[in-house]
Request: fold
Amino acid sequence: MRAMFLGILSAFFFAVTFIANREMALSGGNWMWSGSLRYFFMLPFLFVLVGLRGNLKPILQELRHHPQNWLIWSTVGFGLFYAPLCFAAAYGPGWLIAATWQLTIVCGALLSPLFSVTIQTENGPVVLRERIPVRGLALSVIILIGIALMQLSQVGQAPLTSISFSVLAILIAAISYPLGNRKMMAYTGRRWDTFQRLLGMTLASCPFWLLLSGFALVTAGPPPIDQIIQSIIVAVSSGVIATVLFFYATELVKEDSGKLAAVEATQSMEVVFTLLGELIFFGGSLPTHSAWIGLLLVIGGMILHSSLSQSRSPLRNRTAESNASE
Reply:
């Protein structure tokens, strides 16, 4: 029960990202600043977190001596994940972005053959290539149908080009996030804990954010003070508080795959919290009937997918750890 509560609480703080990004977009904030500022403001908090655990020096040495993989996959996993999400916020309500973002479950499953896992046998270690989880992918169809219904509900309320831009941007993010994170986990193995890897990837993605913020400065000028404040809120809420809560929740139940699946399924509440937050703060209209059906299909599909995955993959615990860097 405690782990479930912490999982739901982490989903609440993760939802702040979608609400704040939508608010910044509606108030005219440039999406490039929204993305860059979050990661810039995450750095001091991560330095403190890792430093208090006495793990700062080793990860900084690792980045200095082996920068290539960190730079490449951190740019993919963080840069090409979060920048498109900020871009998409200009083209639809936060609850729709949060729900469509669950495409990452489908993309993560389709990317499985790109990775391998080492299994210890009586004859020694054996390297096996991950296979596409067919049953899990079949359940993902529920999520895809739900997303399609929600997007179709926007036809007539938003131009088709806007819907297309939004879906394309989220699709790029949904591919980049599991690809970058899992490539980094495969590279680092068990050498670094979640907070060290989060700090390392944030630092290694900074060249991308510096380039993006430089382009934003030239084309849009400096960010307004409201956007700076909201970016700090996102960095603390999603980048620090939600990450710590979710990681701690998975740590509490990591030896019980059933409970771990239940904790992961709590992240479906992000969509609900985002919808409630937008209704409270923006006074937006309720989704249409077809959008409600789609929303329920997405949440239900996420819960079923998480439950099925408890016995599916040897990489399960590492996948739960990857979720914590969202």
